[in-house]
Inverse folding.
């Protein structure tokens, strides 16, 4: 096993004991990237010189001292490109650090590498990137999921010790499931969104991709907390997220929502998740049937609210302030052709849909009604959490699909997030952890288990995830690269 397959916690141990230097940790990554990234294409850019300068001066006694971490190309890192997977921001260089990056740097971490993504985080396969298609490390002919597909793929392929992504409707949990790593979406307001390029502001959260649950806790420790620069970040206390790891599950109640075990779900996913639930029982957790009755409306509500917010957020890309500018014509024509040439088809589709649902005459019928149903979805979770500590269900209804298979069928693509979207609408936290494989064409295709926790109870969510992880070997499996 190469050095680059170390977890953050293992790497930190070796750095602190001086068994390994930060520059060696970075070089191990760089050589692994050279070896496998031509196949995976998880990175769209890397600044080795900048990272090396930081590695040379790293203080390994800090919480993440000397640990390189890959960043989805939607989070601003000062001096690095921030393209959001879009032609409209090709060549744009960030001139400040997102709060998450400021906190990572203060903890000694080194942002290294920009991960590929669906354009402006819209998609479930990373095929909407304007630059390249990323591949699933378990089967290169399949997608890594999305929109943070690059972040998931580089962690699964051991081209990163850990990575960050963003999750608006599943973009951390779904690719983590399809690539076999841990993906955590924190509670809305837990992590500052300052410096995250906005897709749907009421849903977006930044979170980690890691090889272990413990690593997710370590990274959440560093990035959490109130930020005066983000008025939606909350002033809740930040516990030590590792503090409950290792506690047993006696007294823990897990809810099995009947709406998440439906026909149409891949039988191999259904079987793996049910086996995981039996494992939870044997670990001492009590399994309780719960109902989230408004689940069937989640995808519809999401594609009204998320597109409405996106249509407003993406208005700023007009050729004047950032990135690409089309030439010729008067000012109005320049706006129009910049956006026509700069945005890809999925982004345009969403801007048109979002503008439509916000237009007078349709606002009440679509946007306002979607907001009301969102309240009902949130209430479903509040009621379920009166009975259980967390909800357990599949992350994705099926394993990774073949590249190209859905690219021309947006509605089918939207259904990839059927199990992850409600968690964002409710604003609570969720995690995906590896729970098995489906065999197909001689390849092993990862399956993810999703746990949805109570708002701001990430410590307990991580405890529950960790207990399962430690009782199985799924997280140790390595892709055949
Ligand atoms: N796949 C969903 C979408 O296309 C979710 C994306 C996300 O979470 N950023 O909108």
């Amino acid at each position: 096993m190469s050095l680059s397959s170390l977890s953050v916690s293992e790497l930190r141990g070796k750095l602190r004991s001086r068994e390994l230097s930060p520059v060696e940790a970075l070089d191990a990554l760089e050589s692994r990237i050279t070896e496998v990234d031509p196949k995976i294409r998880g990175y769209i850019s890397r600044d080795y010189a900048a990272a090396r300068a930081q590695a040379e001066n790293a203080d390994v006694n800090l919480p993440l001292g000397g640990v390189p971490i890959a960043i989805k190309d939607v989070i601003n890192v000062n001096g690095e490109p921030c393209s959001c997977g879009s032609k409209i921001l090709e060549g744009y260089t960030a001139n400040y650090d997102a709060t998450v990056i400021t906190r990572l740097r203060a903890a000694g971490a080194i942002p290294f590498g920009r991960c590929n993504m669906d354009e402006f985080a819209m998609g479930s396969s990373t095929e909407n990137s304007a630059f390249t298609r990323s591949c699933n490390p378990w089967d290169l002919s399949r997608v890594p999921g999305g929109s943070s597909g690059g972040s998931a793929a580089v962690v699964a392929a051991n081209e990163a010790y850990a990575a960050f992504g963003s999750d608006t409707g599943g973009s951390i949990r779904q690719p983590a499931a399809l690539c076999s790593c841990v993906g955590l979406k924190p509670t809305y307001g837990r992590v500052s969104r300052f410096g995250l390029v906005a897709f749907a502001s009421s849903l977006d959260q930044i979170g980690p991709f890691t090889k272990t649950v413990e690593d997710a806790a370590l990274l959440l420790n560093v990035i959490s907390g109130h930020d005066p620069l983000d008025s939606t970040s909350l002033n809740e206390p930040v516990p030590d997220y590792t503090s409950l790891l290792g506690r047993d599950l006696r007294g823990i109640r897990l809810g099995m929502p009947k709406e998440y075990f439906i026909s149409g779900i891949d039988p191999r996913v259904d079987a793996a998740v049910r086996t995981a639930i039996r494992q939870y029982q044997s670990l001492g957790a009590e399994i309780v049937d719960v109902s989230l009755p408004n689940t069937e409306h989640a995808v519809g509500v999401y594609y009204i609210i998320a597109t409405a917010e996106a249509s407003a957020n993406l208005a700023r890309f007009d050729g004047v302030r950032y990135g690409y500018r089309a030439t010729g014509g008067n000012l109005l024509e320049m706006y129009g052709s910049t956006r026509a040439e700069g945005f890809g088809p999925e982004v345009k589709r969403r801007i048109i849909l979002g503008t439509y649902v916000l237009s007078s005459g349709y606002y009440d019928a679509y946007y306002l009604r979607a907001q009301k149903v969102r309240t009902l979805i949130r209430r479903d979770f509040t009621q379920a959490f009166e009975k259980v500590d967390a909800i357990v269900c599949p992350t994705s209804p099926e394993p990774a699909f073949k590249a190209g298979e859905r690219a021309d069928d947006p509605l089918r693509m939207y259904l990839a997030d059927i199990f992850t979207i409600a968690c964002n609408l409710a604003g609570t936290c969720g995690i995906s952890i590896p729970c098995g494989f489906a065999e197909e064409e001689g390849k092993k295709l990862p399956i993810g288990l999703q746990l949805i926790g109570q708002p701001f109870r990430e410590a307990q969510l991580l405890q529950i995830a960790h207990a399962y992880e430690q009782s199985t070997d799924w997280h140790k499996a390595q892709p055949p690269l």
Notes: The CA atoms of residues 23 and 55 lie 5 Å apart. The chain has a mean pLDDT of 97. The chain has 15 helices and eleven strands.
